[in-house]
Amino acid sequence: MSVRVVARIRPLLKKELDKDVIVRAAAAEEGKPFTIVKIPNPKNETEEFSYIFNSVYDQSCTQEDLFNAEVYPHIKALFQGLDVTIFAYGVTGTGKTHTMRGGMKMDDRGLIPRLLSNVFRRGKKIEKDSNGETIVDVHLSYYEIYNDKVYDLLEPPEMRTPMGLPLREKEGKTFVVGLTERPCDDVKDFERLYVEANNNRVTAATKLNAHSSRSHAILRVKVTQTTGDMVLESTASAIDLAGSEDNRRTDNNRDRLVESAAINKSLFVLSQCIDAISRGDKRIPYRESKMTRILSLGQNNGITIMILNLAPMRSYHLDTLSSLNVSSRAKRIEVREIENEVVYKQPHRSHSSTSFSGLTNGVLAPRQPLRPIGLGTSNSYTGSAPALARSATDRAAASGAVIEKAEKPSKLFNVYADRAGHKSAASFSGGGGGSGSRIVGPPQANTSQIRQPLSLSGLASRRSMTDTVTTSSSSSSPAETSAIRSGLIGTGASKLARPTGLPLPGSVSAGVSRQNSSSGSGGIQPPSSKTADNTPILTLSAAQIEAMVEKKVAEILAQRALAAAALAPSTPTAIPSTPKSENPPPHPSSSTSSEQKSEPQISEEVQRRLEALERRIEEQSMNSTSRSSSRRGRGYGSRDEKKSAGLQLLLEARKAKEGGDLETALGLYEDALGYFPGQRKLVGKIEKLRLKLGRVERGGWDGDKQLRGEEAGLRQNGGGGGKGQNGSGGREERRSGSVGSSSGSGRRTAMTVSTTDLDMDDEMAASDVEETPSEAEARRRRLLKSRGRSATLGVGLSRSRQQLYSNTTTDSSSEYDDRSPSHSDPEHPAQQEVGPSPRTKQLLDIVNSRDTNLIQSLNGFGTKRAQELVNHLDTRGVGGEGGQGRVQEVKSLGELTTVPGVGIKTVERAYEGLVAMDEEKREELSKKLALRSYYDETETF
Ligand SMILES: Nc1ncnc2c1ncn2[C@@H]1O[C@H](COP(=O)(O)OP(=O)(O)OP(=O)(O)O)[C@@H](O)[C@H]1O
C-alpha cells in the first residue's frame, strides 16, 4: 500500500480574516469527497494548479472529523500487529502542532490524545473480552530532533548531553540508543507525561509564528498484548515535524538561523528521499539527516499517513506550492503492510531469574539476546488479540518445542554481531518511524521480541516491565526503583544494560563459560552460589554481559560527545531551554556518580572484552575518519572512485583522439593505465598510438611489462627512457612533456583515426563517472592548454557528434530535435532560426534552474551528479574563457556534455527520459519549473 497522503487546509486565524485566500479544496466529481487542492499558478493567476491527494480537508474540518477519518480506522490494525506512523508536514504556522497535539479543550484535542484514548479504550475492551487472559500494556517514548540531534523529551533537559542521543542501525532499522520508555496506564497518565514532555520541547518564537516548534517531535506508543506466553507488539508513531520557513521572511537571529538551517536541511533531505523513492532510485539519501533516518519513509512496514498542513493565504503561496509538490510525490511511496508476529515468551523457570540475583525477577529477563531459529515464521500470527487469547491454550503445546529451543543460548556474546539470523530481543526503544521499534526480525518483516522470562506473576500484577520489576524484586532498593522508573531499565538494551544501583556482593567471578559448566542446563547459575570462602559468586549470563557492554558503549559515546562538545565550545548546538552547567550533565544512560559507587566489579574476562570492544570502536571511528578525510583530500579513495577516475581518463583520451590530438590522447591512455594496470586492450591502444606518433621504443615503454601488471599503478614516461612515475606528480611531468611534443604535427593527421578503435562501452562507462568539479576543471584546463583551444561547444567531439549536440539555434540536424521535420529543413533558412526543441529547452531549463531536486528528476542524474553540476555552474560556469568564466546558462546540449561528470551518455539518457516521460510527470515537472523560475524572478527563494 502507498503512503496515504492527505491535505488539511487550516482556517484563517482571527488576525488573518482580511487576508486573500487562494488555496481551496475540490472534489473530482460533484458530491464526492474532496481529493484535490487547487491553487493559482503564481506566474499566471488565471491558471490553477491541481494536486490530487487521497483526501483533502478544508477549513471546516474539525479535529474529530480528521481523527475519525484518518486515524481511527487504523487502531484496529494497530492491535492486529501493524505499525502505524502518522506525520504532519507543512510550512511553519500551517497547523501541524494543532493537528497532532491540538488544544486543551476537549473539542480541540489533536490526533495524538485522541489516538491514546482510543488505544486505552480498545486495550481495555480486549482485556475484558478475553476475560483477563490478554493483558494490554502501553509504553510511551517521546523525543525530539533539534538541530539534527536527538533529545529525550521524557527526561528533564538537564539530563541532555550536547551531542544528544546516538542513533544506531540494527537489521535495517534505526533506533535511538538510551531512550526512556515509560509505562502509561490510562489517559490521565498520558496527559501528565505528555504535558511534562512538551514543556521540555524546544520552542522559540519567530516572527512568523509566536509558538513555532523548532524541533521535530516524535511520540512512540508501544502496544504490547500478552496472552499467556505469547506477545504481540506494535507501535504507533506520531510525528510533528518542524515547519520549514524562509529565513528572510522570519527575520531570524543567529540561533534561529541555525535552527532554521537544520530544519530546512532535514526537510530538504526528506523531500529528496521522497523524490528518490518516487523515482525508484536505488540510493535514497536517508542517512543525510537524523529525521529521515528515523522516519525511514518507504522502508518501514505498516501503515503510513502523511498529513500535509496548508495555510490558505496568499502570503504562503510559494511555500504552499513547494509543500504540495513534495507531498504529492509522497503518494507514490509504497509501504509494505506487514503485521508484526506473535512471539512466545519463555516459560517462567524457577532458576531463570537467578542470573543476576539482585536484579532478577524480570529486570534482565525481558532481554533475550537470542531468538531461536524458525521461531518467527512458525509463530507468525495475524489475528487479533482476543483470537490470540483463544488460541493460547492450543498453541501452548506447539510452543513448547519452540520454547525448548529458545532456552538454549546459541551465542553468548552478541552485541555487535548484527547478523541477519540473529534475532535479539534487545529492545532499543525509539526509532519512531513506525516500525523502528524493534531490533528483532528480518528486515522485510517486523517481528516482536521474545520476552524472556517475564514472570507470570509480573504479568499478573499487570503493567509495565518496570512495575513487574519493582514488585517482583524484593531486594530492589528505592534507589534502584527510581533508576528503573527513570527509564534505566526496561526500556532497551542500554537500560537493561545498567547493572547499577544494585547491591552486588563481591566480585563477578565467572564468565559465561563457567556458567555453562556449572549450571548444566541453560548455562545459568543459581543466585545463591557461593565460593569456598562463602563469598557469593555472581555469574553473568550472555544477556548480562551484553548489557554491560551496552552500558560501556553508552559511556564511551557519552564521553565522546562531551569531548566533542569541549572541542567545539562555540558550536551553536546548545538548546536555549537547556540550562548550561560547567560540567555537562551526564548522558542519560551513562553512569552517575552514585551509580558508579554501586557498580559491580567485573571479572577480568568481561573487562578484557570491554576493552577489546572499546579498541574496536576507536579503530572503527579512526578508520572512518581517515577514510572520509582521504576521500575529501584526494578524491580517488575507494576502488570505485579509482575506477571512475580511470574511466574518465579513457573518455578524455577518446575525445582527444577523435579531436585529432593524439599526443594528449596517448598521455591520457597512459595515465589511465595507472588505474587499470596491465589492461590488455588499453595497452594495445597505447601501442598503436605510439606507433602512429612514430614513438619507436628505445626500451622506454614496455607494454609487456604493463601487461604483466608489474608496474601496477605506475605510468610510463611518454618521452621514453625513464620508467614510470608514480601518482599525480608523474602525470604532471608527462603532461608537460606531452604539451611540448604535441605542438608538433601529429595532431591534424590524427583526424583520420577511426573512432571505432575505441570501445563504446568505455565511453559509456566513462561518461557516467563522477569527479569533483575542481578536479575535473583542473584536468580540463590542462587538456585545453595542451590543445591550445578553448572549451567551446563540443570540445573533443567528433564533427558528427558536434553536430548532434549543437542544437541551440541554427542546428537542424540534432538527433534530439523533436521539432516537426519541416522545422529542420535546411532548405528553409528562416526556420533554422527556430529555437531549441521543447524537450531540449525543458532539459536546459531544468539544468539552468540549478535546482538539484529538479535536476535529479532527469534520468541519469543522481544526487551527487546533480549537486556537482550545480556547483560547477555556480562556480565555474560553462564554456567561459578557459572554462573559468561565469556563464549564466548552459545554452545547448553540446555545451552540457562538456560539464565535468556529465558526458555524452548522461545527456542522452536525460533527454530520452524527458521524451519518454508520461504526461502526469511532465506536467508536474512543468509546475516545478514554473515555480522555480518564479522563485528566481522574485528572488524570494
Ligand atoms: N485547524 C485549525 N483550526 C484552528 N486553528 C488552527 C488550525 N490549525 C492551526 N491553527 C492555529 O494556527 C496557528 C499555527 O498553528 P500551529 O502552531 O499548529 O502551526 P505549525 O505548523 O505547528 O507551526 P510550526 O511549524 O511553527 O510549529 C496556531 O495558533 C493554531 O492554533
Structural commentary:
There is one protein chain. The chain is an alpha/beta fold. The chain contains 35 helices and 19 strands. Helix 25 packs parallel to helix 28 (773-787). Mean pLDDT is 61; it is low at 203-212, 347-539, 565-602, 621-637, 698-773, 786-834, 877-887 and 937-941. The structure holds adenosine-5'-triphosphate (ATP). Adenosine-5'-triphosphate is lined by residues 10-11, 13, 90, 92-98, 209, 211-213, 242-243, 309.
The description of the largest β-sheet is: 10 strands, mixed
* 3D shape: globular
- How many distinct beta strands? 19
The structural class is alpha/beta
| Number of H- or I-type helical stretches | 35
Low-confidence sequence ranges: 203-212, 347-539, 565-602, 621-637, 698-773, 786-834, 877-887, 937-941
Percentage of residues in strands: 5-15%
Helical fraction: 40-55%
GO cellular component, one term: microtubule
Pfam families: Kinesin
Biased composition (Low complexity): 461-486, 507-529, 570-581, 589-601, 737-748
Biased composition (Gly residues): 716-729
